[in-house]
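[recover] target loaded
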């Protein structure tokens, strides 16, 4: 393998590992952002409980069920971010879990792109107001999509360089 190919391969592998770690950090940020929304945003935890109690549900049950549901949601978010990030780091270091990386990243990217469509829909329906939190949320979601696209690009370039290397060695 020539030195230019080695340099590119190392750069894409490092990019994949760093992007995977960044995606895990974004998972933590997503949970923190949701917790902030529940305490200070439009959808407050206390409001959810009050509306549930008004519908005839025991207050203790409403608190326990809502807390358990939110904990489950936060766990799912963290697990998904951890799995995508971990597989990106592994792929960048040793080429293992390629299929798993591509599958997880594809699914998460598709969900994030579809979720991005919720912003204009919320504005049109009047359910969302444009404020600094709204703008910050869009910026974070766009950043996550950019990271996922960058992870894909780096992985594809690694595969391309490895195939190119094997063809050169055969010749």
């Amino acid at each position: 393998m020539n030195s230019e190919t080695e340099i590119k391969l190392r750069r894409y592998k490092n990019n994949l590992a760093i992007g995977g770690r960044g995606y895990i950090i974004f998972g933590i940020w997503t949970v923190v952002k949701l917790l902030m929304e529940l305490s200070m945003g439009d959808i407050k935890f206390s409001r959810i409980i009050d509306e549930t109690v008004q519908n005839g549900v025991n207050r203790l049950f409403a608190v326990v069920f809502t807390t358990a549901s939110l904990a489950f949601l936060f766990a799912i978010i963290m697990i998904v971010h951890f799995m995508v990030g971990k597989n990106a780091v592994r792929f960048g270091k040793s080429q293992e879990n390629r299929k798993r990386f591509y599958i997880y990243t594809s699914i998460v990217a598709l969900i994030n792109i579809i979720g991005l469509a919720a912003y204009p829909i919320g504005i049109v329906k009047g359910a969302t107001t444009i404020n600094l939190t709204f703008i910050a949320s869009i910026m974070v979601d766009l950043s996550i999509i950019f990271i996922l696209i960058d992870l894909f690009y780096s992985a594809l370039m690694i595969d391309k360089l490895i195939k190119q290397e094997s063809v050169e060695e055969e010749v």
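[recover] notes: The longest helix spans residues 132-170.
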